[in-house]
Design brief:
This protein is an all-alpha fold. The chain is built from 14 helices and 4 strands. Strands 1-2 form a two-stranded antiparallel ribbon. The termini are far apart.
Length: 354
């Protein structure tokens, strides 16, 4: 019998659904609506009719709070039956109303959640993809850290990685608790101290004595989050130092045991890497494509300095510039030519007026 992954998942779901499991929490703990704790067992009219008058009086006195005087006034058994049936019906209706109220509240909350899920499905899908990518990156990083600690035989680094993993879980728990605390309450949230900041109390006067002074911002989760990040940074730096020290120790031990040929080969590889870096550095130097005359100082500097080479040759026409050896043509400008044509037209008009 070939069992694929889908078949295994189906079997597990069927096993979970058929077995009766008691959970430590239910989804109603997060929604906030609870069913009545005890199921009330009430008597019907037929069951009350079959009871004796003494049993009816005893049940009225024990379960419904009838006094001896009230029971003494009821002489007929029919009145006792009607009184007990009425009290039992009241309890049954009260229990049914409570159940209906809880079910209606759950139905409304479930409908709202489903509508939000349908509307925000593209956003949720994108968030899931981002979370999956971040999870893969995080797991690869942790796997690399553990593998590196195992290669270097650094037990202190392994301890640091474990502490950082625990801190990551605590930070995720704290973040989820803070986000969910805006919409729900639960006893499974991260325990954070209450450190409220109330600006109204600092203002003094009537505002400090008004109800507005009771409103504030709880900075307890912020302090806990900052403390976790600080400890995480310290542990991470300490783990890095331990890994670096282990790497240096392992490298020193490897060099002590190497032969002369291995040492010479290592130095040759190091020299080759240095030469390659120098060659790459020289290749990245940009070559100047400017004319050599353009690199000379301007006329104002020449006037101050006295005699010196002429930066630009005046023996060329308007279309060229540079030294006598090389000619560097200037780019033609259509806008400049149009401007000259307009200028010639205006000059001809003035000549005609004269």
């Amino acid at each position: 019998m070939n069992l694929s992954i889908k078949n295994v998942i189906r079997l597990l779901l069927a096993l979970v659904l058929t077995c009766q499991i008691s959970y430590a929490w239910e989804w109603s703990d997060f929604v906030g609506s609870h069913m009545p704790s005890t199921v009330v067992a009430t008597l019907s009219l037929e069951q009350v009719s079959d009871m004796r008058a003494r049993d009816i009086k005893r049940r009225l006195a024990r379960n419904h709070g009838y006094s001896a005087e009230e029971l003494a006034r009821i002489l007929d058994k029919k009145e006792l039956i009607h009184a007990l049936a009425f009290e039992e019906e009241k309890i049954r209706l009260k229990y049914e109303d409570e159940v209906k109220r809880v079910l209606l509240k759950r139905g409304i909350i479930t409908a709202i959640i489903l509508v939000l899920v349908i509307i925000c499905w593209p956003l949720l899908q994108h968030a899931y993809e981002v979370a999956s990518v971040n999870f893969v990156v995080y797991t690869d990083r942790k796997r690399h850290e553990v593998h590196r600690c195992w290669e270097l035989k650094s037990y202190a680094g392994m301890v640091g990685c474990m502490i950082m993993f625990v801190l990551d879980l605590m930070q995720a728990w704290l973040t989820a608790s803070i986000l969910l605390s805006w919409v729900m309450r639960s006893k499974y949230f991260f325990p954070t101290p209450s450190l409220p900041l109330r600006p109204g109390q600092l203002m003094g006067g009537e505002i400090a004595r008004s109800p507005m002074a009771n409103y504030g911002l709880n900075v307890g989760p912020m302090v806990v989050s900052w403390g976790m990040r600080f400890v995480y940074g310290r542990i991470e730096s300490w783990t890095g130092r331990e890994l670096s020290r282990a790497h240096q120790t392992q490298r020193r031990a490897a060099r002590e045991n190497e032969s002369e040929q291995e040492r010479a080969a290592r130095k040759a590889r190091k020299q080759a890497r240095r030469e390659e870096r120098e060659r790459q550095a020289t290749m990245h130097v940009p070559n100047s494509k400017l004319p050599p005359d353009w690199m000379q100082p301007n006329n104002t500097d020449l006037d101050k300095q006295g005699d010196g080479p002429v930066p630009f040759s005046t023996a060329h026409n308007d279309q060229t510039i540079g030294s006598e050896d090389k000619m560097y043509p200037l780019p033609n400008s259509k806008e400049h030519e149009e401007f000259l044509e307009q200028l010639d037209c205006h000059i001809s008009e003035f000549d005609e007026l004269d």
